[in-house]
Design brief:
Elements: H1 12-17, H2 20-44, H3 49-75, H4 87-93, H5 102-130, H6 134-160, H7 167-181
Helix pairs in contact: 2-3, 2-5, 3-6, 5-6, 5-7
């Protein structure tokens, strides 16, 4: 369904299990950034009422996920660490066009957002199936379903508002691009690392 070019090596889960506090902190900040991203897209494209409505709900969900991860952190006696840079997201962002028109920028941002949600969904699925912690296994299964919905929301809006742009060609190019950069990841206890 997600169409990712390269699956995450299942050994990544063993790396994650070596430092649960780190993965939870990284995950919390990923959720905060996802909410901020949705709000940014709204800010830049506020003339599209349906997009605003759906992305407001999405941003609220992402903040709820941030809160849920933070509650797990507190319950386990961990501390929410400082915000981390997400090198994968920063590298993926290089795919988006500099210049171009506003519509192209919107489509690229929506596709970029869909890709992040797709990779997160894939990672959450792997965690739900392989992590030995039953609470986290169920937690990541529930979030996987939500991330899949976010992925389809972003991709759907890119297709809807991409009139005159070959959105499918651009999406396939992004899948190829992501498939190359993801080869460098899967070695740290972060959601995208």
């Amino acid at each position: 369904m997600l169409g990712l070019k390269l699956a995450t090596d299942p050994r990544w889960v063993t790396i994650v299990e070596s430092n649960i506090e780190e993965i939870l902190t990284d995950h919390a900040w990923c959720e905060q950034k996802a909410a901020t991203n949705a709000i940014t897209i709204i800010t830049l494209n506020s003339e599209h009422e349906d997009l605003v409505t759906d992305l407001l709900k999405l941003a609220q969900e992402e903040l709820e996920h941030f809160e849920m991860v933070h509650e797990i952190i507190k319950k386990r006696g961990y501390k929410l660490g400082r915000e981390r840079k997400d090198h994968y997201v920063n590298q993926l962002f290089q795919f988006t066009r500099n210049g171009g028109n506003r519509q192209q920028a919107m489509v690229d941002r929506l596709l970029f957002s869909a890709m992040i949600e797709a990779r997160s969904c894939e990672r959450f699925k792997l965690l739900s199936e392989r992590i030995k912690d039953p609470e986290l296994s169920q937690f990541y299964r529930d979030l996987m379903i939500s991330e899949a919905g976010h992925y389809t929301t972003f991709l759907g809006f890119a297709r809807k508002y991409g009139e005159g742009i070959d959105v499918e060609k651009r999406w396939k190019a992004l899948i190829e691009f992501e498939g190359e950069i993801i080869k460098s990841y899967g070695t740290s206890e972060t959601i995208h690392g």
